[in-house]
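[job 0412] stage=complex_fold ligand=zinc ion status=START
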Amino acid sequence: MRQMMVEEFCELAKIDAESGEEAELAQVVAAKLKSLGLDVTQDDAGSKFGGNAGNVIGRWPGSAGKEPILLSAHLDRVPPGKGIRPVIEGNRIVSGGDTVLAADDLGGVVAILAGMRMARAARGELPPLEIIFTVSEERGLQGAKHLEYTKIRSKRGYVFDSSSPVGVVITQSPTHVKLDGAIIGRAAHAAVNPEGGISAIHVAARAISGFPFGRIDDETTANIGMISGGVATNIVTERVAFKGELRSLDAKRALGLSKACAEQIRLTAAQYGALAEVSTRVEYYGYAISRDSHVVKRVEKALAMSGREALYRSTMGGSDSNIFNKQGIESVVLGMGASDVHSTAESLPISELVAAGELARDIIMAG
Ligand SMILES: [Zn+2]
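[job 0412] stage=complex_fold status=DONE, emitting structure tokens
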């Protein structure tokens, strides 16, 4: 199994699949699911956001008396993710050094495929399964957002997509609000007629200096990460645009704080006679899953089957699980054991890959 998982991981990593360009990889994993006996479809999610592939959905009918469960991982990887040359170094798989490895999230894809193979080979009664390989997770959870939930039966799910060690169960994630702002002042010659202008840079500086950067409390963060404006030093700047975000494990706090920040920016602009265009939108909602819930109890049981203890964590990151939970599929995210994801130093211990596959098998068998 170990050898097969490593080979399959390397096979899939070599297929280019940055966000929006998952078509070839989607075809390959769809064929693998079919060869495992699943009923496989691909939706048209990609066409809704400019990607070249939809989500791959594999269904296993399972025993009627058992609860259907959803197992998910994402197909896309962050750049630089083209031309990956995976290398085995002892117990680790690493990239050639000039790309990511795409263990985020091929670790999850390979674990689910291996888990399904092992569960089938065990010849017990399996539950109904929905295996969903999403597209463009790394680009705002686009695949999960465009999935047709009326066609999904499962009410509980497992997202194989955390960079924590195998055994970690993410039960809490924040609500994430995006903030888009622009200050509109008035252009004038900066030396001949400075009195005629209102500097958008000056006003934006005042407005942004009042923004609560960083870790605001244990469960809340804020950042403005992009700013642009101005055309020449002799022109009083007319327009400055900026983008930021607020996240909190407390949804009310994320929403309230983003409204307050937007209002503060408007007020500051008004004080200087400038205009502010500020909008906020929820990128995704947070969730908090109880330790007593079925979805947690099942993974706890599955981990115990290979002598592992569940470690519960919250994250300040988002994943497809945020969308699944909002859609009524109670989901947690599982550690896949990769290190340094989203960097060219990304690596995956083979023992963790194997453990993740066994976990997938045991989650299937535990129901
Ligand atoms: Zn991921």
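The two ends are 23 Å apart (CA to CA).
[job 0412] exit 0
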